[in-house]
Model the fold of this input.
Amino acid sequence: MRMKKQTVEKHDLHVKTGDRVIITAGKDKGKIGNVKSVLASENKVIVEGANMITKAVKPNPMAGIQGGLTQMEAPMDSSKVMLYCSSCEKATRVKHEVVDNKKVRVCKKCGEQLDV
Ligand SMILES: [Zn+2]
Done:
């Protein structure tokens, strides 16, 4: 039996669920989408509409699932996405600022708040 390799190290990714990101590498380069979920332990993110794969789904009449082939997003390396600033209309880096005692992320280029 093969042991599953465990990573105890927890990464803090530069993006989080709901962020608007632009893809900087791979077949979806240049695509902009929202982060659907973050797999911090694997350093991966799932971006809406990006890195689509076709997956076979088993029919499950109880759940109303017909089965067949379905398109879904596959996790991709977090290094392939950058935060997207809709104000600059560019990929950007963020800096952290404290506004009203709350930590917010702002665009390094235009100062626009990214946490809304
Ligand atoms: Zn900006």
